[in-house]
Specification:
single chain; about 220 residues; alpha/beta; potassium; Trk_Ktr_HKT_K-transport
């Protein structure tokens, strides 16, 4: 897979290193000569150019990329790069870094963004995820379909604890994608029994999040008359 990364700062270089280790082809683009540190990521291709310029993206052969990552520290630049990648070069997957959470609403399909990653939001979400049980935590937003990656740690008194995945009436437009149980990562087969303390990861439509949280919450006791 060929990946172009706009922004060769610490974030861009870190992403490039991870992708290269996984066997992908990576091109780093930055207009600042001081950012071109070939010795830090020698396996990557490097291009000194302005990623907001069509001529630069032509030189980068963006049409050959499977993924473009807009990872600069400037939200305006990331939006322009995303829009050009999607509309001018038809890049299948565009991932954009959101630096200011107030700008997050702009990073959507209209600007060519498939996945928006807000570092401040992600960090706060991970803090919430570490300390909350029974509360739905939004980890990542997908622009297409208005869907989010959300997580919930199943409380002991949850109504679905002890129930098989296939027997739960999951809300429409939600999909359980992973169960994390201790150090194990489980594929949620219909026969898998949900246990208290399981970390459940869902891709869910935003409109269904409240319904999903209600489903996984505390079991309601019935009283006999």
């Amino acid at each position: 897979m060929r990946v172009a990364i706009a922004g060769a700062g610490a974030v861009g270089r870190s992403i490039a290193g991870e992708l290269l280790e996984n066997g992908h082809e990576v091109l780093l683009i930055d207009k600042a000569p001081t950012a071109i540190s070939v010795e830090r990521v020698p396996q990557a291709e490097w291009l000194l150019a302005d990623a907001c310029e069509i001529t630069s993206l032509d030189e980068a052969a963006l049409q050959r990329c499977n993924v473009v990552i807009a990872a600069t520290g400037d939200d305006k630049v990331n939006l322009v790069v995303s829009l050009l990648a999607k509309t001018e070069y038809g890049v299948p997957r565009v991932v954009a870094r959101v630096n200011n959470p107030k700008n997050e609403w702009l990073f959507n399909e209209a600007w060519g963004v498939d996945v928006a990653v807000s570092t401040p939001r992600l960090m706060s979400a991970l803090v919430e995820e570490a300390v909350s049980v029974g509360d739905l935590v939004r980890l990542l937003r997908f622009s297409h379909g208005d869907a989010n990656l959300v997580e919930l740690t199943l409380p002991p008194e949850s109504a679905v604890a002890g129930t098989s995945v296939g027997d739960v009436a999951w809300p429409q437009d939600t999909s359980l994608v992973t169960i994390i149980r201790g150090s194990r990562v489980l594929t949620p087969s219909p026969e898998e029994t949900l246990e208290a303390g399981d970390e459940l990861l869902f891709v869910a439509a935003q409109a269904r999040e409240e319904q999903l949280e209600d489903l996984l919450q505390v079991r309601r006791e019935t009283t006999e008359s």
